[in-house]
Design a protein that fits this description.
Blueprint lengths: L7 E5 L3 E6 L6 E8 L6 E5 L8 E3 L5 E3 L5 E3 L5 E2 L3 H9 L5 E5 L12 H10 L1 E7 L1 E5 L3 E5 L2 E6 L5 E8 L5 E8 L4 H6 L5 E3 L3 H6 L12 E4 L2 E2 L10 H14 L6 E2 L1 E5 L3 H13 L4 E5 H8 L9 E5 L15
Parallel strand pairs: 4-9, 11-19, 14-20, 16-17
Antiparallel strand pairs: 1-10, 2-3, 3-9, 4-5, 6-7, 7-8, 11-21, 12-13, 13-20, 14-15, 15-22, 17-18
Helix pairs in contact: 1-2, 1-5, 5-6
């Protein structure tokens, strides 16, 4: 999708480093975001593998695993897992080009959200490359389904994500969230939302070698009708907001912003991968366009303040702390 507050491609103003544990691998990893003056998108570089084998382009066609997160791999079998939160932060802060040095197989989970990445990018700033930003302009619907789950890209004058989830017999229940992704919408409305899991699944996941780095410091843990984390929720509908964040990160693997409306129902990483495949098979359903050309042609500004629309079972203020749901 699109963080459309700039019509020129941008990179980071300076290098930014992070250290943290991988959610699934449990390994401590150092990650450094570096400026990239070339217009070749987001690139990951594994510094802990043989020289010349560690470069992986953050593109949809390199997605190799979608179990609980998004993993990309290159032709040598070198991979980086759980990239979606970082990709969302880069897209949401308008970063088109960057080289990401990482010394392990998984992006650090940090606090389970994209906020640590987005806050640092906003703090240190970005730099224009004086090259027009291209975008994918959706002109005909593109859809994938899996039973009652589905994901679509629909024509829209401005980029938007709408997503609905349903976890019956849990505190989460049914939630819907819709957000127009222009200006500061990502930083203000999505970046702080954290990943979540269910207490009854933890042991089985760890038996499969997953969630080895998970803790109450980097995920919301739901146990039936209560939240285990002492701090409660950051938003009343934090669960669906985080699913929107994940989708945003997955769609960033298109390589350029998408002008259109993503609508998902119970969609996840696997369905998002299929949607990207369908998008690039459906050449007649979209066009490449520069953002400057699009604004002039459509008579719209993609730089205006964002509007947020959300619907959930409990649309309480954003600073909600759920009482009675901590241990």
């Amino acid at each position: 999708m699109l963080a459309a507050h700039k019509i020129e491609q941008r990179t980071l103003r300076q290098a930014i480093s992070f250290v943290g544990v991988g959610l699934h691998s449990g390994r401590m990893t150092r990650l450094t975001l570096r400026p990239n003056q070339d217009s070749n998108g987001i690139l990951f570089q594994r510094s802990d593998v043989e020289n010349g084998r560690g470069l992986i382009a953050a593109r949809w066609y390199n997605v190799s695993d979608t179990r609980l997160s998004t993993t990309i791999s290159n032709e040598y079998g070198v991979s980086v897992a759980t990239i979606e939160h970082l990709m969302a932060a880069l897209a949401g802060c308008g970063v088109d080009n960057a080289l990401i040095d990482i010394d392990g197989p998984e992006v650090p989970i940090m606090d389970g959200s994209a906020e640590p990445f987005a806050t640092s990018i906003e703090k240190y700033g970005t730099l224009s490359l004086k090259v027009p930003r291209n975008a994918i302009w959706i002109q005909q619907p593109i859809e994938v389904r899996d039973g009652d789950k589905h994901a679509l890209l629909l024509p829209a004058r401005k980029p938007r994500i709408t997503l609905s989830i349903d976890f019956p017999d849990t505190l989460i229940g049914a939630q819907v969230y819709s957000i127009e992704l222009v200006n500061e919408a990502f930083v203000q409305q999505l970046a702080r939302s954290r990943t979540f899991g269910f207490a009854q699944q933890v042991e089985a996941l760890r038996d499969q070698g997953l969630a080895l780095g998970g803790s109450l410091n980097n995920a919301i843990l739901v146990d039936g009708d209560r939240i285990i984390n002492r701090g409660g929720l950051r938003y009343a509908d934090e669960f669906v907001r985080h699913k929107v964040l994940d989708a945003y990160g997955d769609l960033a693997l298109a390589g350029v912003p998408i002008i259109g409306h993503y609508y998902g129902h119970k969609s996840g990483h696997a369905l998002n991968k299929r949607l990207m495949e369908k998008l690039f098979e459906s050449h007649s359903s979209w066009s490449y366009v520069t953002l400057g050309e699009y604004e002039k042609m459509m008579g719209v500004s993609l730089h205006e303040g964002a509007r947020k629309t959300s619907t959930s079972r409990d649309d309480a203020p954003d600073n909600l702390r759920v009482a009675g749901h901590s241990r």
